[in-house]
Amino acid sequence: MSIFRTILFILVYTSMLGCIELNGVPGEETGYSNQTALNIEVSGRNIVKAKYKVGLVSSTDCNDGSDYSEFVPTPFTIDDNISHIPDGELRLCVKAWWEGVSAKAILSETAGWIKDTTAPEGFEITGPNDVVRVEFAEISWSQSIDATIYYLIVASTPDCSQPVQQADLTDLSKLVGPLQDGDYYVCLSSQDLAGNIAQATNNGFGFTVDTSPETRIFATSFRATVSTDQGVPPIVPDSFGSIAAADWVCTNAAFTAGLVPVWNGVDTPWRAILSTENDEVRFRISFRGALYNMNDEIVAGSDEDLWNNQLQNPVSYDEFGELITGDDRVWTGSAGGYWSGESCEEWNHPFSTWTGSHGNLHYTGSNWQFHNRLSCDLTARLYCINQ
Q1: What domains appear along the chain, each with residue ranges and CATH number?
Q2: Rounded CA separation 376/382 (Å)
Q3: Rounded-to-integer distance, Cα 366 and Cα 359, Å
Q4: What is the pLDDT of residues 332-386, one digit of tens each?
Q5: Rounded Cα distance, 178 and 171, in Å
């Protein structure tokens, strides 16, 4: 037989053969599926009709003629509801009636997948911290058991309906940005091979991006003396005879502790929390965002919270970050951010006949500013805050 006749014979013979085609079998990509309703198209070359059955592999034998459906003319769709079949490895058996030119036969085809309708285990978003000081934020979360992919949304609304950034991930963290200053919210979902989805238990997790300079407050490690010398800088470094001189004392303390890397000895980027009748501190000192002590604890969420005595943590620490355990009195002349009525006569009368009000650095209520009165010939610390 010539090569040409051989090829022709094969083509003719092949065209006479039948085959079963199954389209839409669950889990075609991963082998897993959470489908509870089938939508499988059954067709094929020279296939007249077919019947089928589906069940767990452990109890479904394609060679066993029982439990098959009736023969149905092809093509047709298997649209059975399989929610009653437990999760596990499933098998689809199809037997089709083939009619060739001079022969007839029953053809068989099988398909299988793992049915899994259980969502991955719950998980939670763990970061970032409440306030992020740079324009990039590290979003992190705990592992969701059985999950193979995570869908991350960073948005400007708690319900994440206004996404700012989105990502599909396999890791347990993602650096997002750059982000403008403002409030952001994180929503995260996990998905397993079968397509089951779980939501993070704390979706809507919020954080704030604030790239403005971090505002700090400390109480001086030394006790300052009220002086008749109103000059700046003061003759005695730990004394002051005016608010401007007290600002210099604060800046010098910050410089000594390394909080001011470079200083010309004149400018005063750190200010003393002091008031006089004509210079009340709430109108002299303001800041954006939260205020931190030198132990990285939030003292106040805003300048309004500070002056209104809504402190979350006390000042408590000096410029070196050391917890103050000695004298806790701090010159302020203030109450609620306003003049208390006692400020050693503009802070330049260091005499026992005058008094100045002081706060207590370990308090979070109104006593942080106004705790008692102190004779102006005595000493107390200063509160210092960067601007």
Answers
A1: 3-115 (2.60.40.2550), 125-209 (2.60.40.1220), 215-386 (3.10.100.10)
A2: 14
A3: 8
A4: 999 999 999 999 999 999 999 999 999 999 999 999 999 999 999 999 999 999 9
A5: 20
Token pair, residue 44, equals 């094929």
Tell me which residue has tokens 């037997």. 95
Burial of 99-123, coded b for 16+ CB within 10 Å and e otherwise, reads eeeeeeeebebebbbbbbeebbeeb
CA distance linking residue 357 with residue 378, whole number of Å: 12
281 to 19, 41, 87, 370: CA distances (angstroms): 89, 79, 69, 13
At 109, which helix (H) or strand (E)?
strand 104-115
Q: Which amino acid is at 212?
A: S
Two structure tokens written together for 278 = 């004509």
Whether 347 and 240 have beta carbons less than 8 Å apart is answered as yes
Tokens of 265: 């000895």
Which residue is it, tokens 């490895």? 89
**What pTM was estimated for this model as a whole?**
0.60
Q: Residue 112: CB partners within 8 Å, gap ≥ 6?
A: 57, 89, 90, 91, 92
For 123, 124, 135, 150, the CA distances from 155, given in Å and listed in that order, are 19, 17, 15, 16
Q: Write out the E strands in 251-315.
A: 270-272, 291-292, 298-300
* H or E stretch at 5: helix 3-16
